[in-house]
Here is the input.
Amino acid sequence: MKTYDDENIFAKILRNEIPCFKIYEDNTTFCFMDIMPRSDGHCLVIPKSPCRNILDASDAQLAAVMATVKKVANAATVAFNADGITVQQFNETAGGQEVFHLHFHIHPRHKGIPMRAAGCMGDMDKIKQHAEQIAAVLN
Here is the structure.
């Protein structure tokens, strides 16, 4: 099993070394916007504790993260009047993982509108607005 690298970008976000647009936080999980959004409202849910991916996650980490995924997915559905939600999760390089801290992508979706290409930086003002929309539903 590979080891967790506490210098990954999500670990740095959790330590407030890198800014983010936070949506939700509880004792064990954290949710923030993806800065390369593939859909309006594209956000990420991570555990606060070190965990490389689903292959080394504890049952408690997975349960906590999935409860937050459900909560935020429901809020994003309302915030964006979405027809559906796509949840993505990748493990190891061969599985498409790029940041080696367990994370789930939440994509609000609308019928007939495909997700945007990966790897394109988003408009930070728009991303901030989207974070506020989801957070408003959660509050």
In short: The longest strand covers residues 104-109. The chain has a mean pLDDT of 97. The beta strands are 22-25, 29-33, 43-47, 84-88, 104-109. Residues 36 and 121 are 4 Å apart (CA to CA).
